[in-house]
């Protein structure tokens, strides 16, 4: 287990510091001593690193300002940017594949010309959705900045990987009490609740091993509307969709089964929800989550669910075990912004007070990723926040 503390720095107006916003640290707790002043636990080394990152941020070109910080840092680190050379411990969190490409989500007006340029730059288009003005692609790292310079591109960010909300073992028929219901409503010993006339759609990672399972007689025919892109299954998809279909077939052996992947990004997930409903599915289930789904307003996935349920489709999603104290995933802070000040580089920066004039929020967390959400409209925020992760000593970003 690692202890991680999160502090949010918010710059407002003119601040005599090349600052941004936010600190996350492992095993480190800082106490502000008053309304103003430098908390003693923030070392000069950390303050200098924050300053360097601020200078890097304010030096970004118009194209770089459309890119996520992860991508900008990865590009600049490759180029040997002087400021980032002094931050050797900074991890951009961008994982470049063996073919020198990175998965990205592009927000833009989808056009033939834009798709052609992606391919001309050495990229691969995984999917595109005009209705969501989005493209998921793999691009050479250096090409991300070239593409961001286009007027029709609004933003480029590293693609978020989804995760499965699944159990290791399942006794679906018994766990759901379906055997009891069938027994109660059987007619002269004959089961009449078989799912006949019902279409059920499944959204998961993939239907790997489907043919093998069908050869064993454990599954009938399945209509597959969309497979995951192989590039999104590195090192491999688990075939969780096949497992879900097996459980559903046990519960309702005469139901027609459909599958579409939810593994190709949020916009593809949403489009496949609509596609399953358009294919006539009466019930749709999924076990997939994205860590960047908005908690404050309905994003594309929620909007798609709302659209199909308004047509009478029953939609079920696995809740998962995130937020579980025993699993070390309950480190969540939510509340309104409260400002306080700390001294940085001879000036004052406004930071968030988590309570008791403490700008650090200590949480228990295993290795993983962290996310920051605020309640501005999606894609239309005028606020700027930055989150920093420090080492356990609180001396290195």
Structural features:
397 residues, alpha/beta, Alpha-Beta Plaits, Rossmann fold, 2 domains, five-stranded parallel sheet, four-stranded mixed sheet, 11 helices, 17 strands, globular, disordered N terminus
Which architecture of the largest domain per CATH? 2-Layer Sandwich
Helix/strand structural class: alpha/beta
Assembly context of the chains: single chain
Strand order across the largest sheet = 9-10-8-11-13
SS field, number of helical segments:
11
Number of strands: 17
**What is the mean pLDDT?**
80
Shape descriptor reads globular
- How much helix, percentage-wise, in residues? 10-25%
Q: Give the DSSP E fraction (strand runs of 2 or more residues).
A: 15-25%
Uncertain spans, ≥5 residues at pLDDT below 50? 1-40
The CATH class of the largest domain, by name, is Alpha Beta
Q: How many strands, which pairing sense, and closed or not: the largest β-sheet? A: 5 strands, parallel
Q: Could you give the distance between the termini?
A: 19 Å
Secondary-structure element order, as H and E?
EEHHHEHEEHEEHHEHEHEHEEHEEEEE
Q: Using the coordinates shown, work out and report the CATH topology of the largest domain.
A: Alpha-Beta Plaits
Evaluate the radius of gyration. Answer: 24 Å
């Amino acid at each position: 287990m690692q202890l991680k503390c999160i502090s949010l720095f918010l710059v407002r107006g003119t601040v005599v510091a090349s600052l941004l916003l936010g600190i996350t640290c492992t095993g480190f707790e800082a106490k502000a001593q008053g309304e103003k002043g430098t908390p003693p636990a923030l070392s000069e080394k950390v303050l200098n690193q924050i300053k360097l990152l601020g200078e890097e941020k304010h030096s970004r070109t118009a194209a770089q300002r459309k890119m996520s910080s992860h991508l900008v840092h990865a590009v600049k680190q490759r180029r040997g940017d002087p400021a980032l050379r002094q931050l050797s411990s900074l991890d951009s969190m961008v994982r470049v594949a063996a073919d020198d490409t990175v998965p990205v989500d592009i927000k833009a007006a989808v056009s033939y010309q834009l798709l052609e340029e992606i391919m001309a730059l050495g990229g691969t288009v995984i999917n595109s959705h005009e209705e969501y003005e989005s493209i998921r692609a793999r691009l050479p790292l250096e090409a991300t900045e070239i593409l961001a310079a286009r007027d029709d591109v609004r933003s480029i960010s590293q693609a978020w990987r989804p995760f499965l909300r699944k159990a290791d073992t399942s006794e679906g028929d018994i766990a759901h009490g379906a055997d009891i219901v069938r027994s109660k409503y059987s007619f002269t010993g004959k089961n009449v609740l078989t799912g006949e006339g019902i279409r059920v759609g499944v959204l998961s990672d993939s239907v790997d091993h489907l043919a093998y399972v069908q050869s064993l007689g454990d599954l009938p025919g399945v209509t597959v509307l969309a497979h995951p892109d192989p590039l999104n299954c590195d090192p491999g998809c688990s075939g969780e969709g096949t497992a879900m279909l097996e459980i559903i077939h046990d519960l309702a052996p005469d139901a027609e089964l459909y599958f579409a992947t939810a593994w190709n990004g949020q916009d593809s997930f949403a489009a496949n929800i609509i596609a399953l409903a358009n294919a006539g599915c009466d019930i749709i289930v999924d076990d997939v989550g994205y860590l960047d789904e908005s908690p404050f307003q309905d994003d594309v996935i929620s909007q798609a669910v709302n659209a199909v349920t308004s047509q009478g489709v029953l939609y079920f999603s696995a809740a998962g075990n995130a937020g579980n104290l025993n699993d070390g995933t309950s480190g969540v802070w939510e509340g309104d912004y409260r400002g306080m000040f700390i001294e940085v580089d001879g000036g004052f920066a406004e930071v968030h007070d988590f309570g008791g004039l403490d700008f650090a929020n200590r949480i228990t967390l295993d290795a993983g990723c962290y996310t920051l959400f605020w309640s501005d409209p999606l894609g239309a925020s005028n606020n700027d926040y930055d989150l920093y992760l420090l080492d356990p000593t609180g001396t290195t970003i």
